[in-house]
Every structure is written in C-alpha cells, then in structure tokens.
Amino acid sequence: MTRSGPPAALVASRHREAYRLDAERRARGCVQPVRLRGQRNLVDTRTGEVTTLYDSANELDGQVYVRCGDRRARLCPSCSREYKGDAWHLLLCGLAGGKGVPADVARRPCTFLTLTAPSFGPVHGARGGGTCRARRDRPRCPHDRPLWCTRRHARDDRQLGEPLCEDCYDYVGHVLWQWHAPELWRRFCIALQRELAKAVDLRVAEFRKACRISYSKVVEFQARGVVHLHAPIRLDGPEGPDGPACGLHLGTAELEHAVVIAASRVAIDSEPLRDGATRRLAWGTQVDLRSIVDTAARDSDRCGRVVHPEQVAAYLAKYLTKTTEDFGLPARVATPGQARAAGARPHAVNIVRTAYRLSREHEDYARMRRCLATLGYRGHPITKSRAYSVTFGQLRLARRLHRGGRSEDASAWDVRLLAEDAVPAGFEVVSSFVYVGRGLATSLPHPRAGPVAA
C-alpha cells in the first residue's frame, strides 16, 4: 500500500512561508524595499568576455530587494534606525575623531551653535512645564482674541505651537523666512569667516590660507512649524582635519564671539510680493552656544555651557528621523486641501496655504509648491562642510564590506556590491536592472509561469 504525500494545501502553505522568510531576510527588516529584476556583468574591455556577477533569476522569486533607505521612522523603522546610526557616526567623527578622522580634532576650538527664527506672533508653548502665557493684565488682540493662556500644555497637546490669533500671526513672514533659511546660513558662514579674519587682523584671502571653518548643520522643526538650526563648528588648519591645527591665536571663546556678531549682521531682503513690498529676513535674537569639550561629563545636562561630543551627536541624530509628521502632514502635499484632508493641524494648514499662494504670486517662489510637505523649507535636514568628517557614502560602503566579509550574513546581492567596488583594471561593470515594484511581494510566481513583466 503506497502512502500519499502531504496535502497540496499544506505544501503551498509551507512554500509561501519559506518565500516570506526568504524575502524578509533579503530585505533585512525594511518594510518598503524596492524590488528589481536584472543582472550585473563584468565585461573584459579587451576581449569582450562577459562574466555574470549577479543575476536576480537565481533568487527564489527572481527579484532582488534593495532597502528603501528612508530616514523617516514613521515610514520605515529599520532604515530610519540605520540612517540615525550613520548620522551619529558622521557627527561624532567630526568632534572626537575616528573612521579615518584623526583624534586631534577633539582638541581644536569647537562650539555647538543653535540659530532660531524670529517671532512671527505669540503661540502656545510648554514653557518648561509651567503655564503657557500667564498675563495679569489679560490683554486682547485687535481681533478681540486673548493674548494670554493659563493652561499647562503637554508635549503631545495639538494646541502646542498654534498661534493665539491666526489673523495676527505673520504667515507670510513665516513662509518667506523658512524659504530663505538656507541662504541665511550661507551668508552667515561668509560673515563668520570675515569676523574671524578681522579678529586676527588678516584679510579674508590670507585667513583662508591659514584656517578652515568646518561644520555640520542639522535642521529641527519647532512646534510652531518653523525650523531652527543646530551646528557644531570647528576651526581647522588649512589642510582640514588631516593637517595641523590652526596656527592663529583663535580659541573657542574667540570663535563664539565671532559667531554672535556674524549672526546679528546677516539679513536678506525678500523678492517683492504682489503689492511691491519686501520683507527683511534675519536670524532671531536667541543665539545659543555651548563649548564642545571631550573632557565634559557624558551624562551631564545639556543645559550646561560645556557639552561632550557624544552628547551633541546623540542629540542631533535623533531629530534626523523626524520631519513634519508631528503636524499631521503626509510625505507629499500638493494642495492645502490635501493637507487638511490628511488631518494636519490648523496652523500647518495655514502655512501650507500661504506657501501655495506665494508660489503663484512670484516666479522666484514657484518651486515652493514642491516643498509644501516641509512647510516651505527647501534645504536638506543635514549638511556638512567637505572637511568636517566622513560621508554617508563612506559609512555605507564600510557596512557593505563588513556584511560581505561575513559568510553567515552575506547574500548574493552583497557579493555583487563588493564586486562593483573592486573592479579590476581592464574590466567594466555593466548593469541592467528594471523596476518591478515596492514592498515585500505577497505571493510567489507559479513554477510553470513565465517571468513576471517588469
């Protein structure tokens, strides 16, 4: 008597489970991986001989999974955690050394700068756990709305950051300042260089030959929907971190003094609006500076005037995984109505509405429509000077090399990447990949079926 095999349903169930586990392993925790199909070949440029380095047809489903790399924790926790770790290393190496950056940078003049936006109108705030805006005189605005609030707002209160009076709040100034914030930073860097050159009685051209300003800038959104900028700033010699320190008589105190003066002198006149008026845009009066010293306590309160490099790196890295989701905005916003339908806070909707209107009033603000999801901010969340530290690309390459060197953790895709990064002389890598989809595939193609169309 012959014994029958397992039921077809059980075989299919085990088949699907094996496929699911294989897909999750190749995606390495990414919830929205990009699925590609194709191959990468190594071509001998002299003979034309082709050697296949990687072919997605060898995978169980004929596809390769590439992690999305999204930094937003709300969209992909795994890739966001990886991005946060890379940002921490990038920031820390510029303050304490490592990853090819000499440890000598920890002894150079360095400060942690925070630049804020000016006020565009009173808003609800946490005020360190105290009352929001307690006023004995109980004033009211021209629209007969109270300019006081005796509530104690929690950190998750949706009223936090909302203006006390929407009609009094300067939304146009808010959006224009947000749009010009990257240009304000560029002009601040130029002004800082001039102030430091003046402090040592040198011309700017001579100062550049003796000193280099290195920095990394991280953007954080405040509860009122406007950005403020955090930046560790370091003084190097003319060769950057790899060469000797700056030979000029400049210390952290001189650097911080020059920062305050430069921030107070930077201003921009916006393009004229429909009524012909322009706005004078400048930094807010709150300029916060904290000296970065490697001898400071790692667990001390950040409110101290001296902070440890690891404190600064951890503080800044955590903000890079957030964007404007706290305001209820989706990843992409095309119109104010879309922001309102997504459940965005009223204040955020008003900012989007103002940015949308300005984008149609002046041709210089036409690109503002692409930045509605970031409330009119057009810059990157993190930037750095060329000589500050390592790059994200170097850190990702090191991770690929590490994964490829571990036999128990290396995949065919990792081996393909290693071959790409070490192309021998006389050879060329030729790739041919097509986009299939995004996210983990839910079903495995039937063995008898032909290849899935890209």
Automatic annotation (TrEMBL):
Highest taxon in the source lineage = Bacteria
Please name the InterPro entries in this protein's record.
RepSA
Protein name (database record): Replication initiation protein
